[in-house]
Backbone:
């Protein structure tokens, strides 16, 4: 089986097995610890790829992803939190989150909204089902 036909879990396992020195193994670990990978509870790996980091706040990563489903949204991940919010108005879309965490994210959102919109718009591929956000709609 070639690397091109492997699923993400098979690919990562293959790369780990073929890492023949500590430097290659460390680079792979760094990639696995990045925002582009997630180890699922069933032991499989999800590769997000091209996730665009908007900000890091106290151990949390705020990201947007290309080829997303509507509505335009951002993700907040880390410290046991994995939630998504509308870029238009910061409505909580998915994920378990406390009311205090929601308030903090809303505070952050009010300061960083223009940056979120700019990054969302800059990451829209031509075939994305959700296009850019105009300031008049946001």
Residues:
């Amino acid at each position: 089986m070639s690397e091109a036909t492997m699923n993400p879990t098979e690919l990562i396992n293959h790369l780990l097995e073929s890492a023949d020195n500590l430097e290659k193994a460390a680079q792979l670990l760094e990639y696995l610890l990045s925002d582009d990978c997630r180890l699922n509870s069933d032991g499989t790996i999800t590769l997000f790829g091209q996730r665009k980091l908007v900000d890091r706040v106290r151990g949390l990563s705020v990201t947007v992803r290309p080829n997303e489903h509507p509505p335009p949204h951002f993700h907040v991940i880390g410290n046991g939190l994995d939630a998504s919010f509308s870029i238009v108005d910061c409505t909580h879309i998915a994920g378990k989150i406390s009311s205090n965490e929601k308030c903090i994210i809303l505070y952050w959102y009010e300061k960083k909204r223009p940056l979120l919109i700019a990054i969302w718009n800059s990451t829209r591929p031509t075939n994305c089902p959700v296009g850019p956000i105009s300031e008049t709609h946001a």
About this structure: The CA atoms of residues 3 and 118 lie 34 Å apart. The radius of gyration is 17 Å. Helices lie at 8-18, 22-32, 99-122.
